[in-house]
Structure formats: structure tokens, C-alpha cells
Amino acid sequence: MSQKLIKATLPEVINDPKHWSFHMICHFCKFSLALTAFSIFGIAASPAQAENLLVGSTNNNAIDLYNGNNGAFIETFVTPGSGGLSIPTGFTIGPNGNLYVNSLGTSSVIEYNGQTGQFLRDFVTPSSGGLVDPLGLSFGPDGNLYVASGGSNQILRYDGSTGAFIDSFAKGGKLSGPYDPIFGSNGNLYVSSADNNEILRYDGSTGAFISTLANNGQLNMPAGMFFGTDGNLYVSNFGANDILSYNSNTGVGSVFVSQGNGGLNGPVNPVFGPDGNLYIGSQANNNVLQYNGQTGTFINTFVRAGSGGLDGTGYVAFANITPVPEPSLTLGILAFGSVLGASLTLKRFVKCPTGY
């Protein structure tokens, strides 16, 4: 039979309801279109992870990424030693969406792509402006970067776009062992002064010392801090293994997470998650612990020791990071695209009745 005759006969055969191929092809078209629609729209409707949890793995010189809902390991976001990273002691997401990380061992701040973790550059070059042992950083209302220089007892300011040194910002207050500078909603700068067990407050525009917010005898090596939605300042009391809460205006404080609650040991920094609960890196036992954001009651161990290779749990922070889809998902979409194309081609020849 010639090709010309085959082409002329095929539509007649497959459009014959009595022929076995007619019903098989109609079922195929119906099934493939439904499955393709489910796959495409199902994927489109699946919400991207709103916020995942970054955790510093200080002994690995890396930063790991965990699911923000259940604490499951996703990936090593910043690979060990990437860009010269040595002992990450703090990090923050910048105005441009990139990740900025303190590198204690190199006395620098390194910039990474905020979605892939790829090394971009030394944002603050080693020892720039007299930086020694950086212990926390944050971007200010002016868009510039403020870094706690633990080894020189200063808060240093750098250009938020170029990383160029501007000046030594915070002045006075007998700052000693500064950790984790953070700006309040009132525009003032708050700094843990770990060596003398105080929380100091500075004018956020001039750097002039305002007052000692807290030195009530409860503080013992205060470390990381975070503002809650209630406006209070939550402080990791590293030496006492608890979390304190302070009114950021009056300095009146109380214990929010009691000593050792849930196994808390060596709290690095507290952070409130998108669910309103409190998450804390517990360095001595290598866990990330979760507490009720209203009462401070222990909920569970959110990230367990060793998960994903975690070693030396350090700083924690939530960030809008969407993991790259698995290759199998991409191949699946391509496969469904091929099926869709085939079914549409067949439908050009086959006149399936209603119901298919």
C-alpha cells in the first residue's frame, strides 16, 4: 500500500466508532489532556515556600537551609568555605535581596546571591576600617551597613551599595564586646555589650550615646537580639541560657524563655518566624529550638543536631528563598508537554463524541 493511500485511509479508519482504535484514541486524548492540565495547574497552584530558615554551621564554615514549616533539611545554601567564608557569626538579607555574612576568621563581610547562595564578592574587605572579629550586622534606615567589630569595640558603618568604609558610628557608652547591632522602629540603634553585660542605646542618625537600656543583673553575656511584633526587644542571654524581653523605651525586662527550657544551652540569637513563634540557635547542643511566641513555652526541637551535616549551630534567620526545582520535575513537565502535543495532533483527525 502506498503512503498516499495510507494517508487517505487513516482518518476513515480511526473515525469509525466500530473500529477498536477509535475508542482507544479518544480515551488517550481525554486522559492525557486531563493529566497534563492537572500537572501544569497543580504545579502553578502549589505555593512557593514563603520563608525558609537559614542556620549558620560555624564548624563547617557554611550556611544551611531548612524548611520553614517543619525544619526538614533542604540544602547547604552557602557551601563550606565559599568565597573564603570562615566562621559565620551573623548574617542578614540586604535591600537588594542578597545575603550578607560576617566572616569572623577573615574579619570581613561576604555577599552571596540571595536565591542561590553563590559567592558574589567580598563586600567589606578584610579589616576594612579597622574591622576585627565581626559579630553581627544589620542594614540601617539610611541603607548603609552597620557591623559590630568585636575585636575593636566599635560599630562600623559601610556604604550599603559599595561596602566602602564610612566611619566608626557608635560613640560612648563604654561599649565592650559588641554583638548584633539592631535598629528599632523608633530609629535608634541597640547593641549588646557582652563584656559588661549591658544593652546600649544610640541615636540612629548620629551614633551619639543615649542611655544604657538594661544592666539589671539578669544579663550574662548578652548576644543576638530581635524585635518582636509587640515592640519588645528579645535578647539571647548566652551565659545564662535563657531569653530576656525588654521594653525598648523603658528598659523594663523579664524572662521570656526560662533557663535551660527545652534544652536551651548557649543561645546565639532569637528570631520570630512567619508563624509568630520564636526560634533560637542553641549552640552547645547543636539544635534549633522552637518556642511559643506569646508565652515562651517550649514547643519542639525544630532542627536537630547534625541535620544536613549541621555542626556548631550559630546564627539563624528566616528568608524568602525558593529552592531550585528538582531535575525530575522539569523532565516531568517536558514529558507532559510531549503527551499534550501528541493528543492535540490526534484530535485533528479523530472526531470523538461528547463524553471523551
Q: Count of DSSP helices? A: 3
Question: Helix content range of the residues, please?
Answer: 10-25%
Proportion of beta-strand residues: 35-45%
Rounded to an integer in angstroms, the radius of gyration calculated over CA atoms is 28 Å
Mean pLDDT: 85
Question: Unreliable stretches, pLDDT < 50, 5 or more residues?
Answer: 1-14, 31-49, 328-337, 342-346
Number of strands: 24
Distance linking N and C termini = 32 Å
Biggest β-sheet strands, sense, barrel: 4 strands, antiparallel
Structural class: alpha+beta
- Please give the order of strands in the largest beta sheet: 3-2-1-24
Shape: globular
| SSE order, one letter for each helix or strand | HHEEEEEEEEEEEEEEEEEEEEEEEEH
Fold and architecture overview:
By secondary structure, the protein is α+β, with helices and mostly antiparallel strands. 17% of the residues lie in helices and 37% in strands. The protein has helices spanning 3-14, 20-45, 327-347, and strands at 52-57, 62-66, 73-78, 88-93, 99-103, 108-112, 119-124, 134-139, 145-149, 154-158, 165-168, 178-183, 189-193, 198-202, 209-214, 222-227, 232-237, 242-247, 253-257, 267-272, 278-282, 287-291, 298-303, 313-319. The chain has a four-stranded antiparallel beta sheet, with no helix packed on it. A hairpin with a 4-residue loop joins strand 9 and strand 10 (154-158). Helix 2 packs antiparallel against helix 3 (327-347). It is globular. The two termini are 32 Å apart. Mean pLDDT is 85; it is low at 1-14, 31-49, 328-337 and 342-346.
